[in-house]
Amino acid sequence: MNLPKLTKKQKEILGLLYKHRFLNRVQIQAFLQHKDYKTINAWLKDLREKQYVEWIYSTDFAEKTKPGIYYLGLNGVRYLKTLETYPLDELRKRYRESSRSQTYIDRCLLLADCCITLETKHGENVYYYELESEYFTEESFYHFITESVLIHPQLCVSKSKFDPHQNEDVDVNHYLLEVFDATLPRYRMKKRLSDYAKYLDEEEYEWKQEAETDKLPVILLVCPRTTDLIYAKRRTRSLIAETWEYKDEDEERPCIRFTTVEKLRAHGATGDIWEEA
Question: Which of 266, 221, 244 is nearest to 113 (CA)?
Answer without folding.
Answer: 266
